[in-house]
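Sequence only, no structure available. Ideas?
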Amino acid sequence: MKLLSRIYMWLVFGLLYAPILVLVIFSFNEGGSFAEYTGVSFYWYGELFRDSAALLSLKNSLVLAISSAGISTVIGTFAALGLDRMRNRYLKGAINSVTNIPMMNPDIVTGVSMMLLFVAVGGWLHATDALGFGTMLIAHTTFSLPYVILSVLPRFSQFDKSLREAAMDLGCTPAQSFFKVELPQILPGVISGLIMAFTLSLDDFVISHFVSSPDFQTLPLYIYNQTAHEVKFSMYALCTLIIIAILALLLLVNFAGGIGDRSKRRRGAMQ
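Reply:
I predicted one. Tokens follow.
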């Protein structure tokens, strides 16, 4: 039984990580071919930094991801706060259900509906270019919001309400109580929601495809447009760099979380 479980585990890991490993290995292939590995080289990484269109698309993706993640994190945190303070459980359940709709909706349905909405509003306002960075920012913020709320809301549920009441008894206003007492306690959930929103925005293709314009092209759209001809090997180099950056970010978050847990245990032992 142990042998079967190990085989199953390695099979799952192989299916998950083998494509990534192949991409990383062939990004160093000097010959630029999947048929033959001619030697290890950083040639395609050099080509990547000479590709101004790819770098512009990467910059657009990062600007969009950072902006939408920041906005959705702020809105989602206060939305979770409002849901936590809501007393009517029927209304709270209804709002929770409505909030989860963007997560359950197929991306293509969300993309088409948003495109129709933006085009209709642009027509009413007589705007010549209805689609662009603004529409992509609204769309990315919208589909990221439920994930932020889902990350932050459980932290409010775990929070000791007596701490908030004690802070207000000691003279804090509700706003001061939130920023000085509650926010530090729910911060891990806020950071998780921020990272999730950033990753979802950086990765999104389907919704972006429907609400974008030729003037503002993200990296997934740029790579997709190349598939009509042939994807340049410099794109594999770019994907490798993104994988390394995400891996470093995950390690940093886990390392910071481990330090925080150890400090909490140390404070608990001292008390």
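The chain has a mean pLDDT of 82.
Hope that gets you unstuck.
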